[in-house]
Amino acid sequence: MKIYTKTGDAGTTALFGGTRVAKHHIRINSYGTVDELNSWIGMLRDQNLESSDLEMLISIQNDLFTLGAMLATDPEKATLKSGKDRLDIPLIQKADIRKLENAIDKMNEELPPMTHFILPGGHQSVSSCHIARTVCRRAERMTSLLHENEPVDELILTYLNRLSDFLFILARKLSSQLQVEEVKWIPSKKG
Q1: What SS3 class is residue 191?
Q2: Ramachandran region, residue 123 (left: φ > 0; alpha: ψ -120 to 50; beta: rest)
Q3: DSSP helix/strand/coil, 184
Q4: In the prediction, which pLDDT does 24 show?
Q5: pLDDT per position as a tens digit, 71-93
Q6: Angle at Cα 64 formed by Cα 32 and Cα 94, nearest 5°?
Q7: Each residue of 11-41: pLDDT tens digit?
Q8: Which of 73, 137, 154, 176 is the most interior residue, by most CB within 10 Å?
Q9: Number of domains in the chain
């Protein structure tokens, strides 16, 4: 299989279904940012994490490929009139969101309550979580903008919103496990 096709040399790319759009199209930015997020989660997986956290991150990476495929599909070519998926791609489900929520709730039960905002950092694993979280928020913003112009499945937006919460709580869990102090953001008066 050749890795280069030369079809994008003029600044366009094809969506699933064959529609060509500019490489700077908001749809491309949306799923491109999801791809970037998936790479950051891959880096997070390279940290020394518990096996249950690694399994969850692999599950999330699979979900992100599904989500990216949904975003990369021309909405006019995605479904038949019967509602059946024309291109036979998987879809994000409510169960995928519930899985994130259950993981968030389980981790949060074991953490001290938050009293302040927390400055990102303290350990490479914690920082990796925060970078992934901020990229997730950017993917959510891009997808929200896309949704204003070309409606997308709202479960995509819900999933990204919940995933950023998951990554924040995972960062807190890792801080606790690694015995890294969470540095609170306390605004200082200047002048």
Answers
A1: coil
A2: beta
A3: strand
A4: 66
A5: 988 777 665 444 445 556 678 99
A6: 130
A7: 766 666 666 665 666 887 898 999 999 999 9
A8: 73
A9: 1
